Amino acid sequence: MMFVTGPAFAGKRTFVRQAMGWDEDELARHAVWDVQNVGPETDLTALADELATREVVIACEVGGGVVPIDATQRAQREDAGRLACLLAERAACVVRVCCGLPQVLKGELA
Amino acid sequence: MVSLIVGGAASGKSAYAENLSLGLDGRRVYVATMKPWDEECRTRIARHRARRAGHGFVTLECYHDLVTLEVPRDANVLLDCLGNLLSNEMYDHDTNATNVRLLTADVVIEGVRHLAATCQNLTVVTNEVCLGGTNYEGDTLPYLQALGRTNRTLATEADFVCEVVAGLPNVLKGARPCAC
């Protein structure tokens, strides 16, 4: 599994499509994105194990702003960060996309 | 030679971009984008001015319509920053009018292309503001989208792209054009 992360609106999905040579339909079949939007009381380890069976998993980095005043948003942000760590552990390759440009943080691009 | 320098608030991106610019050839021109509309802005402007002092930069103020800015052909331009420029194009502090459309990004993109085509070296500072999630109300999310689009587009066209973290360069594209 390749895990792709980075800021919002940084071009993560475009990068995956170009790197894998996929069109929009293939992207939808082989990849899953916005996994940072974790529901409450989610078993993060089980979710990470399940996501690790996909070819590409994409998450938006959301932990770089101020702590949200709303408790639900706060918990979701925590879960998003933890899930990203679990996904990176399981991934053969981790790529961060910033300004549309990929940077390999772990492994190698296939 | 076009360089794009991206970073979060107070990451050291402006100081890094200035150092980079000082290593490039050409007549030094600084394009300032921040409207001095309150005390906080004026303090920030004074800090940046003090850092540039003695380096021979000619300062041009440009808050809107970068595409109309004239610079000498041999200019070595430092433009700081796209976040301000986009904000000036989208929101009018005096009238509270807004022009919040994704395509507003194109006004900024075309302005940078214009400078790139008319000067010798161009160093552009931009902002990373999309790391705090997308739970925003009102006009904020379209601004983030537009700045994201601006950064992605210009990163494709730039020769050198560098993210600055705690004052240190993390090169994303190209080779450093000078020791910086």
Describe the protein.
The complex is a heterodimer of chains A (110) and B (180). Chain A has a single domain (2-106), classed as P-loop containing nucleotide triphosphate hydrolases (Rossmann fold), CATH 3.40.50.300. Chain A has four helices and five strands; from the N terminus they run E-H-H-E-H-E-H-E-E. Chain A has helices spanning 12-20, 24-30, 44-51, 71-90, and strands at residues 2-6, 31-32, 56-60, 93-98, 101-106. In chain A, strands 2-3-1-4-5 form a five-stranded mixed sheet, with helices on both faces. The termini of chain A are close together. Chain B has one domain: Rossmann fold, CATH 3.40.50. Helices cover 37% and strands 23% of the residues of chain B. Chain B contains five helices and seven strands. A seven-stranded mixed sheet of chain B has the order 3-2-4-5-1-6-7, sandwiched between helices. The two termini of chain B are 15 Å apart. The relative contact order of chain B is 0.25. The model of chain B has no long low-confidence stretch (mean pLDDT 92).
Question: Tags for this entry?
Answer:
heterodimer; A: 110 residues; alpha/beta; Rossmann fold; 5-stranded mixed β-sheet; 4 helices; 5 strands; 40% helix; globular; B: 180 residues
